[in-house]
Amino acid sequence: MNAIPCSGLTGDTPPAPGYAELKAELLSLIDELAESLPSALRPALALRDKLQAGHFDVLTVGQFKRGKTSLINALLGESLLPAAAVPLTSVVTILAYGETHRITVHPLDGGRFDIPPEALADYVTEPGNPGNAKGVREVLIQTPSPLLRNGVRIVDTPGVGSVFRHNTDTAYARLPQCDAALFVLSADQPASEAELEFLHEVRKYAGRIFFLLNKIDILRETDTAEIERFSRRALAEAVGADVRLFPVSAAQALAGKAADDPARLEASRLPVFAEALERFLMEEKGALLLDAAASGLARVIARTRLQTELERNALTLPIAELDQKIARFAARRTQAERELQRLEGRLRQEFRLLSDGLFTGDLEHRLEDLNSSLGRRFDGLVLGQDHQTPKDFDERLEAFIREEVAEAFSGWRDAVERKGGAAVADIAEEFNRGIDETIADLQGFASGLFLLSAPTADPEPIWPERSPTGLRTADEPVGLELLAEQALKRAPGLVAPRFRKFKGLAERWARHGIVRRRRRQLAEAVEMLAGRTRSGFRRRLEATRDELSASLRRRLEGVADGLEQALARAASERSRASGEADPQLQRLEAQLALMDGLDARIQAFRSRAAAQPRP
Question: Which segments in the chain show pLDDT lower than 70?
Fold first, then answer.
């Protein structure tokens, strides 16, 4: 496997450790803690899973036939994905790291099964799986590529704008699940209006967009430079800021790797982009993920240290005194659980208030303005269609309701998402602070009870989340078929044979009825979409509230259970002959020394990770 290197492309100086090396070092520290301290096994493994799951989905998007699939093959240095001269990709394909090459199909109805490489085209291409008749949700390709080892998952999406409408729908549906996007243009076709419209959708979701101009090898250098200037200017106008455009030749890069030709690879200009991708990983999200994991590991050690010190000190107490203190701790834990119940009650109230008040004020005024704007546009359309037959006139108004209403609602839904997401973030921060205080009080009580210093640890780490907030609801169809229909659309055909002398009058009467019916449908469509949006957000808010409440409970129970179990172990050992306590004390002292060493290494790790150069 010859993937494009991401860093250290030139010079003899060894590059500074990148995200992959730092992540591997942190995982090693977590494993060492889990293996050395049984009481830390569960939280350490949970932390490991969270760090491992911190992947970065990089979607490759754009119009059909821009060379997106070829670009992925070039980045990985191998023709893993099928490419052809016709619009081909029809199913989302995810490329992730794996020790061995493996292809897994995930059907829409659940389950999974593996396929050999030669069968891949039968599931992910339009010729092999037309219209996704085989019901494939996505295909996962695991491969030992160095580019993917650092947590990147490259996602190949179908091209938009081809004759296959379902391919465009699939590409749009995947956008909310991306961390970054590779927006691929082609040097043989200037940026089109359709591409810039699609870019508008991509910008709603991608935290970072890389713009690539592919196929620079098929044009003369002067022509490529002109296309590059034009595309950069068009993109800048679309996004309202200057953009960096990476001219590349995926075909030349792949050929250079296959022939082990460094000059050809360099001429493809793909290594420049690959290095920028690695720097983004470290700068934008990798550093946050590593620091959150290291902070979480420091918290696990601080918690385990308190449990160990508690057990050590408890072993030195008389049995009667120990039993008394265990009873006092149990009473204090009950008090902490009552505080948690109060927090959960307040949490339910906060979310109820948010659900009731989310659509008032500014959002309510925006909806009124949207409704008025649609009404004015509808009236303008009515005035401009006098030359059409009643049938064509009616179909034009129906198309307006079907297409324009949903489009107009996108901005309102975005505003709802922003307002709701910000409110949920504030609520989560407040209640996480509240449970932190409850946990700190419980730990402080246990420390004072057994003459220990109160523990100090970092606040609960904030893990970088995928954009958007998760509150966004799926776009709803306007659903004209759900609205009441009348027979006015057919009225001219029924009236004309009987009143041919009054055909003009009949058509005016029919047109008046059509306008009245479609105006009512416009109002009903707006109300329907508003209602669906409200109910969808309320369901999401309830789910978010339940998740947050469960998280608060897990955090308190994790700390309280650990302290209680440490005291129970001490009581069990203390009930034995007093002479047998010394070996246990020595074991606990050794564990504390081990934690001191791990803690020092974690702090050194965090310092080195924070010192990584940023572009």
Answer: 1-17, 84-90, 150, 160-174, 176-177, 207, 281-285, 384-387, 410, 414, 455-510, 577-581, 612-615
44-73 burial code (b ≥16 CB/10 A, e <16): beebbeebeebbbbbbbbbbbbbbbbbbbb
From the centroid of its chain, how far is CA 306?
36
- Residue 79 per-residue DSSP state: -
Beta-carbon contacts of 95 under 8 Å, excluding residues fewer than 6 positions away, are 72, 76, 80, 81, 141, 143, 145, 148, 153, 154, 155, 156
Tens digits of residue pLDDT in 282-297: 666 677 778 888 988 9
Q: Are 577 and 319 in contact (CB under 8 A)?
A: no
Burial 347-367 (b: 16+ CB within 10 A, else e): beebbeebbeebbeeebeeeb
Q: What is the pLDDT of residues 532-562, one digit of tens each?
A: 888 888 888 998 899 899 989 999 999 999 9
Could you tell me whether strands 102-107 and 136-143 are parallel, antiparallel, or unpaired per DSSP bridges?
antiparallel
What are the backbone dihedrals phi and psi of residue 260, each rounded to the nearest 5 degrees, phi first? 55, 50
